[in-house]
Amino acid sequence: MAGTERRLAAIMLADIAGYSALMERDEARTFSRVRALREQLVNPKVAEFGGRVIKTTGDGFLAEFPSATAALGCGVAIQRANFSQEATKDEPERLRLGIGINLGDIISDGDDVSGDGVNIAARLEPLAPLDGICVSGAVRDQVREDLGVVLEDLGEQQVKNISRPIRAYRINLANVPVPKTARKAQTSWRPWIAAAASVALVVLLVAGGLLYWRATDRPKSRPFSLVVLPLQSASHDADQDAFADVLTADLTNALGQFPGSFVISSGTALTYKGKSIDVRQIGRELGVRYALEGSVQKLGNNVRVDAQLINTETGGQMWAEQFNGDITRLADLHDEVKWRFARSLDIVIAAEEGRRSQQQPDNPDAVGLYLQAHAILNRPLSVQGFADARKLLDQALDISPDYPQALVDRAWTDSGEDMFFHGTIPLDKAEQRLARARELAPDDIWARHHTSTLYLAKGDNDRAAFFAEQAIAIDPSFPYAYNILGLTRIAQGRAIETIPLLQTAIRLGPRDPFVDTSYRGLGYAYLLLGRDEEAVPWLEKAVATNDKVWTYHKDLASAYALTSRLDAAHKELEAAILLFPGLTIAKVIAFQRHFSTNDVYLKQIDHANAGLKLAGLPEN
């Protein structure tokens, strides 16, 4: 047939859910919004990933890409950006996309395409969740990059007008992904490569001040500069040696993709392999401030990863961590090692860079002020800590108003103090800051997490859960999202669901400075469920970890009283009143109702408050 061509291509087909209803309610406005979505988001993103939009319909579009990786990367980017833009709108008014992606033969006829590859993409799209994606097995088999998503196997699907069954995979970007219990452990080195690369990504994300290096309005501090020195294979085994080299390269590539970072190439770093050179000399030769070095060792069914961060100016060790695990359960250990290493590095780097900034008080910049505040916020929760960080972040935002990480942390100083201490802080400004942060950094998981925290503090629990689930979908190993989702479930009257969520948060972040919030949440859930004996040890852990939060003492006093330990209950009640002078049952109830008026929740808090009465807390 003249003018036609058959070729292999990745096809994306997208459709807007509920389009007819939106048009019926307000045709002109809906048409305008869809056109803006296409012109401002879809077309630029498709072009960014090397694709082309073949055709548009009233409620969707068809696009072609040169590879499955490009198509899926574009789909993820479009969904995340669109979700961020639409999340603040009322549910019925949101433009919510479903996307189907297939890799297969197409027939090109001028500017149009058809064929089996297009037909399958069209049949996959209805299988996609709202704000999510459905891909064929062909796409899944070709994608080799870690795009930060979970592919849930839907099995063989029999779809309309396709004679053979199609293997389909769902990517749920708006809800909790496939449970980890469904993941099969694989005895492979690849999860460790992914884990180490993820450590590098998270280190830069959470040390956000080091990433804020825009082409305009740049802060004056130097960018993050680092070399990942070749990781050593402790056993000198050829396979492990190769693994260590790949791991070094993956870490370097992950770190180097962020604006403002200065990361020495893995090729240059490999020239130091096997050489005994003072790390200070390496720092001078390469012009970097930090060096990450480590080793990997496999002993039977056990694997050990050692890592340390070195200050190349002093040669001093800033941080060191060792992780041991059973190689047969690498799939589960992946998440644990990633966040344990990443969170530790976040604390160390923020503290060090904040200290450097403090040494230059006459010439403050946004990055240095942010890092000083971030270091304070990495300490256990306290009213004074929030106040000190708030002052520094206000100064940082005066210098650079569109500094995403500063906007996020500044919002947290309000929502965190409101949620854990007072319940009386106005949160409208915090909501505006987080909306702006999500606009500036659509893929920032911390912005979503703290948006969830803010809505929990405001008592908007459905929206709080929505953003927490989004954070989990972006990274299923992010412990703070499980924490805030668990606390939200309490407010929704679903405390029984809190228990596994907070157990997961504790498993992923056992040494985190904020693990006390998970201890307290778990104990509080048991208390509300009437499982008072089970509540006691978790609430004791919360108080032992951080004795500056009045609600921890209040809950422990109730649990002690309900388990006939009245002397201990009186002691904890005194501690709560010391932190909250004038505390009464009425004030406790007002604080509790600030978060929710759910009928089940209100009935459950009656049980906890009965314990406070037994402990001797006055009514008014």
Oligomer: single chain
Fraction of residues in helices? Answer: 40-55%
Distance between the termini: 87 Å
Number of strand elements: 14
Shape: globular
Low-confidence stretches: 175-223, 256-261
**Rg:** 26 Å
Mean of the pLDDT scores? 80
Mind describing the biggest β-sheet?
8 strands, mixed
Number of helices: 24
Q: What share of the residues does DSSP label as strand, in percent? A: 15-25%
Class from helix and strand fractions? alpha/beta
Describe, in plain words, how this protein is organized in 3D.
The protein is built from 24 helices and 14 strands. It is of the alpha/beta class. The protein has helices spanning 19-25, 27-48, 68-86, 116-124, 137-142, 190-206, 238-256, 266-270, 279-286, 330-358, 366-377, 383-399, 404-422, 428-440, 445-458, 461-474, 479-491, 495-508, 515-528, 532-545, 550-562, 566-579, 585-595, 599-615; strands spanning 4-16, 52-57, 60-65, 97-109, 112-114, 132-136, 152-157, 166-171, 225-228, 232-233, 262-263, 290-299, 302-311, 317-326. Helix content is 55%, strand content 15%. The termini are far apart. The strands form two sheets. Strands 1, 2, 3, 4, 5, 6, 7 and 8 form an eight-stranded mixed beta sheet that branches.
